[in-house]
Write a structure and sequence with these properties.
Radius of gyration: 15 Å
Structural class: mainly alpha
CATH superfamily: Blc2-like
Mean pLDDT: 86
Number of strands: 0
Strand content: under 5%
Distance between the termini: 29 Å
Number of domains: 1
Low-confidence stretches: none
Number of helices: 8
Helix content: over 70%
C-alpha cells in the first residue's frame, strides 16, 4: 500500500501533467493549484531551456523517457543538491518531456511511465528529503508566503 506521501505525490504529478498536456479539469487540491501556478511560471520564464532540453534531437529513444528523466534528476541533484525549486524544475521538465513525447506520437503508457518515474524518484528515492522539508504542505505554504511577501511568485530561489 503506498504511503500518504507517495499518494499525494502521484496525485500532484498526475494533475500537473494533465494540466500541462491540455486537460481542463480544475486542480484537485490547493497544493495542486499552487504547483500548477509555480510550475507554469517557471516553465514560462525558462521556456527556451526546457524546450531545448526536450527538442526532437534531445528526446530519448522510444521507451527510454523514464530512464532519461532519472538521469536528469540525478544530474540536477549532483549539480547542487535538492531544493523545492529543483523539485518544481523536475516537474516542469517532466511535463515538457511528456508534451514532446505526445507530439512525437509516443503511446500513452510511455507518458504514464514518465509520471511513475517522477513519483518513484520524489516519493521513493527522495522520500526522506521530502519528509524532512515538511512535504507538500510546506511547499504549498512556502510558495504562497513567498508570493505574498515578494509579489513575485515566479522567483523560487533556493528556499523553495
Amino acid at each position: 500500500m503506498p504511503s500518504e506521501l507517495a499518494a499525494e505525490t502521484a496525485q500532484l504529478v498526475d494533475d500537473y501533467l494533465q494540466h500541462h498536456l491540455g486537460g481542463s479539469a480544475l486542480p484537485a487540491t490547493r497544493t495542486a493549484q499552487t504547483l500548477r501556478r509555480v510550475a507554469d511560471e517557471l516553465g514560462s520564464r525558462e521556456q527556451p531551456f526546457f524546450r531545448s532540453a526536450c527538442s526532437p534531437a534531445a528526446l530519448p529513444e522510444p521507451g527510454g523517457a523514464a530512464a532519461h528523466l532519472s538521469r536528469v534528476a540525478a544530474q540536477m541533484e549532483a549539480d547542487g543538491g535538492l531544493n523545492w525549486g529543483r523539485v518544481v524544475a523536475l516537474v516542469v521538465f517532466t511535463g515538457t518531456l511528456a508534451a514532446a513525447l505526445a507530439e512525437r506520437g509516443a503511446p500513452r503508457d510511455e507518458v504514464a511511465a514518465l509520471a511513475q518515474a517522477l513519483v518513484a524518484y520524489l516519493a521513493g528515492e527522495k522520500r526522506e528529503w521530502l519528509e524532512a522539508h515538511g512535504g507538500w504542505e510546506v511547499f504549498n505554504f512556502l510558495a504562497i508566503q513567498r508570493a505574498e511577501w515578494e509579489d513575485k511568485p515566479e522567483d523560487l530561489g533556493d528556499d523553495i
